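Summary of Year 1 activities. Much of the first year was spent building the evaluation harness for sequence design. The harness presents a backbone, in tokenized form, and records the residue chosen at every position. We chose the following record to illustrate the format because it has been used consistently in internal testing since the harness was completed.
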């Protein structure tokens, strides 16, 4: 059992296909030094003894870990996250596995992020999370709620922690954006573009129009793949982290880092050309899917909506192209965090709607 006097935090959790994010808000209203954390959604198995070899024979595990490294020890297993993934084995992101939203994979990511953000080692986390539109059923929502809820005893970077997780609500992916920056009235829509998933939802005010909600396997991962393909032509493996860095530098109109294959640099023009073509193609596919979902004969795509909020990491890369076709698009500040901000906001207000929502705490 967790101590009934332990602090309570409200949180929004987004187990994304590329990056997982968490926002935590203290129930007493006190601001945390940092309330949002993200981590790559990849974990690896790791042997802590190999890490202990970095230091003196009596060095504790916490002292041999470097900045950016994360180690979770839970149920007799040890998992490396962040920069520790490259030193582990069996690295996996569970991409394409629908169970990853409520499996041990998601739990490990949640425990790591919560431990990074919350100063206490024993606390309760009142959580709102989400599922993609394609997986959003009563059965999967209930399963995710039940599977993630529980009391977790584990070690984070060598220090013991106990977290009681209570999932109060499982939203539809993109609904956090609707809550965080959507309108209170009028028909509106959300396009949430992640690493490998596109979720399009529609609402009348804050009420979902489920017949106009849908999802597709589209995302900025397709652009990342095009960068990797250039490297492959030159027999150079460009990993996902490097490809994302190249893409980020490109979109911010900064000089691209030099990528070498043997002694020769890969021509920057080829990388830029691949990014440009892939981005254009992805934007067309996103618009095509939205058109098929929101099609009304004799009406332009999305014309019924007063506002279309564009969120997720894809907003940075596709925003200008999509806005040229959908002028009512609005991109919130930090669009990659808009979902979890909305989920955390919802977690804070659930008790006003259902007074017994957290009664098992």
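For this record, the design step produced the sequence shown next.
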């Amino acid at each position: 059992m967790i101590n009934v006097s332990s602090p309570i935090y409200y949180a929004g959790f987004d187990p994304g296909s590329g990056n997982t994010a968490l926002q935590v808000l203290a129930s007493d209203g006190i601001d945390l030094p940092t309330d949002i954390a993200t981590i790559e959604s990849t974990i690896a198995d790791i042997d802590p003894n190999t890490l202990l070899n970095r230091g003196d024979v009596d060095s504790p595990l916490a002292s041999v870990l470097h900045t950016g490294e994360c180690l979770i020890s839970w149920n007799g297993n040890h998992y490396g996250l962040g920069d520790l993934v490259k030193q582990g084995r069996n690295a996996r992101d569970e991409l394409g596995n629908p169970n990853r939203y409520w499996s041990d994979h998601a739990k490990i990511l949640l425990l790591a992020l919560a431990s990074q953000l919350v100063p206490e080692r024993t606390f309760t986390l009142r959580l709102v999370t989400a599922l993609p539109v394609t997986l959003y059923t009563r059965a999967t929502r209930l399963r995710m709620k039940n599977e993630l809820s529980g009391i977790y005893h584990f070690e984070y970077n060598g220090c013991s922690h106990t977290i009681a997780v209570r999932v109060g609500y499982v939203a539809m992916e993109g609904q956090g954006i609707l809550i965080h920056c959507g309108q209170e009235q009028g028909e509106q829509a959300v396009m949430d573009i992640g690493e490998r998933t596109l979720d399009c939802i529609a609402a009348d005010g804050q009420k979902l129009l489920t017949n106009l909600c849908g999802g597709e396997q589209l995302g900025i991962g397709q652009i990342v793949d095009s960068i990797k393909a250039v490297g492959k032509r030159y027999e150079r493996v460009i990993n996902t982290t490097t490809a994302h860095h190249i893409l980020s530098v490109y979109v911010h109109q900064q000089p691209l880092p030099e990528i070498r294959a043997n002694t020769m640099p890969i021509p920057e023009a080829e990388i830029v050309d691949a990014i440009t073509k892939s981005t254009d193609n992805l934007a067309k596919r996103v618009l095509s899917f939205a058109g098929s979902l929101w099609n009304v004969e004799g009406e332009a795509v999305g014309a019924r909506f007063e506002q279309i909020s564009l969120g997720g990491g894809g907003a940075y890369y596709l925003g200008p192209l999509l806005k040229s076709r959908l002028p009512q698009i609005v991109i919130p500040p930090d669009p990659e965090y808009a979902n979890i901000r909305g989920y955390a906001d919802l977690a804070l207000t659930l008790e006003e709607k259902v007074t017994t929502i957290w009664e098992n705490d």
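The chain has ten helices and 18 strands. Quantitative recovery figures across the full test set are reported in Table 2.
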